[in-house]
Write a structure and sequence with these properties.
The structure holds 3 protein chains of 3 kinds. Chain A contains 5 helices and 5 strands. Chain A is of the alpha/beta class. The longest helix of chain A has 14 residues. Chain B has 4 helices and 5 strands. The longest helix of chain B is centred in the last third of the chain and has 11 residues. Chains in contact: A-B, A-C, B-C.
């Protein structure tokens, strides 16, 4: 089956991202495809390129960055642009448009619009939401 | 349908609200802090009937993490993440009571 | 051939205390462009999202409740409110914003978009959905 996942909370503050990751990993191991992972609300913080967690704990951003489909291909990880801008998560393009120095979205994520979430709901067999 | 509840019934009303609305074919999966509701406690009556019908599941990893493995109420079925995936496949669109 | 699915947006939190209400509404507005079969459910404190007479002057936040009035123009006209949730909170149908849409199949007659329903009715509506987004 094709799964999509919506994550509404940031890393560490809530367990949502961890549970979503374990779910995605299990789905992949069972041979399912992850159509898209969509980060909304504070979930956009899962894409931060500046996270420095303690050495003895999991690195949530890195876990998502390195998770692959069963055939080794990349997983489409989308950060909602409106939610991201509100929370100071910018890629190079958005930083440029808004005249802000620096950008902080991890390169394995992409910023896009809410339409990507709706499309995920339409195109996937199942959409699972993880939040607070 | 599959309904996931991720908050303890002592913290939030999500579990009660879920139970108020689910139909006779739905099942509930307790995840994260929601697994607190799967122990024998003051709120056990909330899901006792559903559990007896085999309609309540709890994520084993979350149960173990919270040190309540020995306190899980009768008839609650413990599942791992792989079985969580299977429940979503089997029951269709999940509703997340967050 | 394009796919049409039944999307339900589940709202259980009131506005302003958290961001979920406004950001959920933003999803609904974007979703309008995708021609899907959209329903909104307001349960628990979510019923407060569409209570009439919201005034945010005193808290310095944007009053986005007016945006609900635009939903009818985008063919989003199935807003289900839990009667039990209203009753528990001392509210009734008169407290809800008078949201309307124009029914093109009935000579553009203006009709209410909000339907107060029992939890039992909501259960049936929910069981018919293909996608349920929670915020």
């Amino acid at each position: 089956m094709k799964f999509s996942i919506q994550i509404n909370e940031g890393p560490y503050q809530h367990q949502a991202s961890d549970t979503a990751y374990q779910f995605a990993k299990a789905a992949i191991e069972k041979g399912h495809e992850i159509f898209r992972v969509f980060f909304y609300h504070d979930g956009v913080n899962n894409a931060s390129n500046f996270t420095v967690p303690p050495q003895d704990d999991r690195n949530v951003v890195k876990l998502w960055a390195e998770l692959k489909q069963s055939d080794g291909s990349d997983i489409d990880k989308v950060v909602c642009v409106a939610a991201a801008l509100r929370r100071g998560m910018l890629d190079e393009s958005e930083a440029g448009k808004n005249s802000i120095e620096g950008h902080n979205i991890h390169p394995s994520f992409r910023i896009s619009g809410l339409g990507q979430l709706i499309e995920a709901g339409i195109q996937s067999d199942r959409l699972v939401v993880f939040g607070d | 349908m599959l309904h996931t509840v991720n908050k303890s019934s002592f913290e939030r009303n999500s579990l009660q609200s879920c139970i108020n609305i689910i139909d006779d074919n739905s099942v509930i999966l307790l995840i994260e802090d929601g697994v607190i509701s799967c122990t024998n406690n003051a709120n056990s009556e909330m899901i006792a009937g559903l559990a007896e019908d085999g309609r309540v599941y709890a994520l084993q990893g979350d149960v173990d993490a919270r040190g309540i493995s020995s306190k899980v109420a009768d008839n609650i079925k413990l599942v791992d993440y792989a079985e969580f995936v299977d429940l979503v496949v089997e029951h269709g669109t999940p509703v997340s009571w967050v | 051939m394009s796919i049409t699915k039944k999307f339900m947006y589940l709202n259980r939190k009131s506005s302003y205390g958290t961001v979920y209400a406004i950001e959920s509404l933003e999803v609904v507005l974007i979703a309008a462009a995708f021609d899907q079969d959209v329903s909104l459910a307001f349960i628990d404190d979510g019923v407060f999202q569409i209570v009439n007479g919201q005034n945010t002057d005193g808290i310095g936040m944007k009053n986005f409740s007016k945006t609900f009035h635009a939903l009818g123009d985008y063919d989003i006209n199935k807003l289900y409110v839990s009667k039990e949730s209203l009753d528990e909170r001392g509210l009734n149908e008169d407290d809800i914003m008078p949201l309307v849409y124009e029914d093109e199949d009935d000579d553009w007659a203006e009709k209410p978009s909000v339907k107060v329903v029992s939890n039992a009715e909501l259960s049936l509506i929910m069981s018919e959905q293909d996608v349920c987004l929670s915020f």
